[in-house]
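Query form — protein Magnesium transporter MgtE

QUESTION: What is the three-dimensional structure of this chain?
INPUT:
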Amino acid sequence: MTQPADVASVTNLLERGTASEQELRRLADLAATLPTSELLYVLRSVPSNQAAILYRVLDKDTALDVFEDLAPADQADLIHALRSSEIADLIEDLDPDDRAQLFDQLPASVADRLMRGLDPEERRMTTAVLGYPRDSIGRYMSPEVVTLHEGSPVREALARVRGRIDHAETIYLLPVVNDSRQLRGVVGLRRLLATEPDALVGSIMREASSAPAVARREDVARRFLADKLLAMPIVDDEQRVVGILTFDDAVAIMEEEDAEDAARSGGAETFAGSYLAAPIWRIVRSRIVWLLVLGVSAILTVQVLELYEARLEQVVVLALFIPLLTGTGGNTGNQAATTVTRALAVGEVRVRDLPRVVWRELRVGAVLGTVLGAVGFGLASLVYGLPIGLVIGLTLLSVCTMSAVVGGLMPLVARKVGADPAVFSNPFISTFCDATGLVIYFSIAAAVLNLA
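ANSWER: The structure tokens for Magnesium transporter MgtE are given below.
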């Protein structure tokens, strides 16, 4: 019995180079013992030229399975390293929605050439998907959908399903349409099989949960998963069925959206492709813009410190508490922003709830500030005296209250102006709260300590 190869052995062989026929045979033998998940790991962790060498030694079925599981950006990198004849076979075997996402990652000239190589029906379906905006659910639906007519007997419906079973994206939930292809309902395959052959499809269909093809992909995917659907018909402006969204596509959309939100909350952008195989410049590009923006905004904090430099010279001990106060304000704002952003995403909060969110975060911030302020007052008073303790306690109360309100408010403002709430990310909120918190801190210190 052949023992599974070690991933490290395959990677090392690729790194050494596989120019000879003997080395290629050895690579093929090693790759044949690896499961698909391990092959995907290797392809995502080596440069595209090495990935192409490994890909060429895979058998056809394994190669197709692996290619379909790669992210569109990784597929594009691999295509650039493969020969034209190999690419043509890959593109032809992809589903139209997967093909459209791949074309988005390729230069226009390459995508056009590949499109011309498709047979007319595949080209028509791919063009239909590409006709929708990139952020719409139409880009992620499959046009390979089996529809049933509401006036058809069940026996004819089952015959239609059998005739198209090899080309359908799914048959477990089937849209029911009228003569104009307008959506009338849906019927499950189980119900269809359990019904008398002479019964009409319209008599057993149920109400459909559908979505317009131009709707935002994230909104549709969240509703899809929240309703625990198997599939969802996608319709045009006249309610005609143009495609179907399946569970795996909805999950993929949410994984991509969550990754984007997580990156932005950390002050970065997602980058196409896998981390280990991505060129350094691609990772740098995903981070540099936010670092520049945050670096410029941090100048506000420096200017505030310069403005209150004279007061710091009068009471030097005030400088010791700056990291504590700015850190607490930033963390409080981040917590509020994260909570409200999630509530927006899952539909628990809407823009019209802004006054309620502000009032709620005001109270939450005040309670947090009271607790932290009491602790800060007690500890600072013991070490530095009652006046300093009072300054620290009042500042923590004020900063926590302000930061919670700002953190809860910014995602709603972003949604109102049509921006992504995640853009108002944690580093941005931290920088804002740092500058504002310092103004509050030195203002309270001036009032309590009678500083000029």
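ADDITIONAL NOTE: Strands lie at 148-149, 173-177, 183-188, 211-212, 231-235, 241-246.
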